[in-house]
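DM from R.C. (forwarded with permission)

"hey, sorry to bug you on a friday — could you get me a structure for this? deadline for the figure draft is monday and I only need the backbone to look sensible"
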Amino acid sequence: MFVNRIVIFANGELPNLEKARTILRDDDFIIAADGGTRHVLALGKIPKVIIGDLDSLPANFELSTFNDEVILHPQDKNETDLELAIQHALTLNPEQIIIIAALGGRLDHTLGNISLISNIQLSTLKLKLDDGIEEVFFCHEQAQVNGVIGDAVSLIPWQDDVTGVLTEGLKWPLRNETLYHQKTRGISNEMLNDTATIQIKSGLLLVVHRRTNH
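My reply, with the result:
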């Protein structure tokens, strides 16, 4: 099976349902990671796949009436439900995966979710965490941020220093510079246009884009 875009709903917090709704398209292939089913239902959608140990399904959801695919895993497992959902999504050969409701809430889960998308083997895939307010993704060589003037963009070296950082469209530009992983220089930059571009020579750069309210 080939699908163009997969949207995975995790079981984390979703701060604004209507902003999350703006992410969705009619042709999205939706996967719910266990309790993420609650967010799918709240948005008036039905998942194509529910995956996990199924210990967090919403109380008002009757699994026996669900006619699409259910992939059950034991509670005693080494992976989170979200990791299992990503693994399944990759078998469908998508061009893009968007993970919703994976930010906020428990810090350990948030950090773990960010780590999941840092895998260098996923670098050719368009992969990000997004809740409609913030989007988080990694820049391996080059990346583009789409937003509006005034949006906040933070560039955070992941695991090690990032060299040769070149940006365009940000208020405080970087011109072939190094961002050190123990420093905070890349935090809270600001978009000057609707698009900002980032290039790096080496390392792995975490990009956090926080949208403004307009």
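R.C.: lifesaver. The radius of gyration is 18 Å.
me: no worries. The chain has a mean pLDDT of 92.
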